[in-house]
Every structure is written in C-alpha cells, then in structure tokens.
Amino acid sequence: MHGSFLTTPPKFFQRLGLTTLFASLALLSACADPDDSTGFAPACPEVEVPLGTGDIYTWEPGKDQDLSHLIQQAQIIEVNGVCRESKPDEKKRPMTRVDVSISFRVDRGPASQSDQINLPYFIAAVKDGKIINKKVFPSEGTLSNRNENIVFKAPVRYIDLPTGSDLQVNDYTLMIGFQLTEAQLKYNREHLEREKFTRHGF
Fold it and tell me: Residues 149, 108: contact at Cβ < 8 Å?
C-alpha cells in the first residue's frame, strides 16, 4: 500500500530558524527506483516551501531589477508525492521511500534571448528544526519561439527517510524551493506577496 500527498500552490511564506546539520544519512537520491514496498502504507512527511523560495526571477547580468531586464520568471506550482515502505538502511532501520514530483511554470521575460530553461531547486529533509540533509537538483525545459510560458515536471526524486515506531506519524518535513542567490532571495522577500502554503490530500 502507498500513502500520498498533493500540495498546490506551494507558497508557504514562513520564516524558518533552522540549524544546519548535515548528518551521514544518505537520505536524498536521484537514482532509479525499484519497488521495494512490502505492503504497509507509512505516513508521508509534511511538505513546506520556505519564505521566498517558491519563485525565481532571472535578470540580465549587471542590469538593475527593472522588468525590462527580466529574462524569465518561474514558480513551483505543485508538489505530488507517494510514500511507501523501502528496504532497511545499513543500520537495519526501517525506511520510508518518498517519491517527489514537482511541477514548474516558467514565463519568458522581455530580455529573454534563449529558449533553454535551467532551474536549480533543492529538497531538504528536516527534523526537529534541523536540516538533516539537502540536495540541489537541476530542472531543464525549453520554451519554443511561439510559447511565452511553459508548465513542466521535473524527474521524480526518490527520498528515503527513517520510519518511526508509529506508522501513522512521520517525524520529518521536506523543504522544497528554488536554489536562489542572495540577491534573488532578497528580491522575493521584498516584492512578493506573502501567502500561506495550501496542503491537500495529506
């Protein structure tokens, strides 16, 4: 059996006072996924998009942040997931595998001169306010000459998290957002409307 979640639109603008702690757990991976499920449906983790990381604006290098210099703007519009039992890890702990699928919308800006899209995004596993592990992934797409915007999905990412003693409770939170520069994050926090992240299907 599989558990699942659907989140849309992913705008959870909440300040996070997280202490970074990169443990030796190999929690995040992008490998092919054999179905290791043996029957039970463990609980899924919470999913959040930290303040200002659900949008990314790309500007012409060396130019000010005027809309005439905007190359492209992108937004995370949906996160889907399926949770199931995975094989025990090297410490023989039971594990929950989370299949994460993220959808993006990209809009071409006035300064766009290329049809290629490359949007780095991250998935971080958080427990008790600490980042246990984080990985940055690429997401690539193409805008045709006739399209001013595109919606596309990143490849499914497979994340293994330790399963707690209660299958109905997952102690982890997955933080998902664009990997931004300091200037991009500052722009988002100063200019974008703060909305609460809406969850469905947990």
Answer: yes
Rounded CA-CA distance 139/44 in Å is: 24
Residue with tokens 């999905």: 153
| pLDDT of res. 133 | 93
Q: Secondary structure of the chain: what % helix, strand, coil (to 5)?
A: 5, 45, 50
Distance (Å, rounded) from C-alpha 193 to C-alpha 202? 25
Give the DSSP per-residue string, 36-65.
---S--PPPPEEE--TT-SEEEEE-TTS-S
Mean pLDDT by 10 residues, the chain (202 residues): 54 33 39 52 89 93 89 93 89 91 92 88 95 93 79 93 84 95 91 55 40
pLDDT (0 to 100) of residue 33: 54
Sequence ranges of the domains in the chain:
3-56+77-101+123-136+157-200
The partner residues of 75 in beta bridges, in order of sequence, read 55, 105
Closest CA to 15 of 201, 134, 199, 185: 185
Cβ-proximal residues to 1 (8 Å cutoff; 6+ apart), any chain = 37, 39, 40, 41, 84
Q: Model-level pTM greater than 0.70?
A: yes
Query: Distance between the two ends of the chain, CA-based, in angstroms?
Result: 15
CA-CA-CA-CA dihedral for 156, 160, 163, 168, to nearest 10: -10
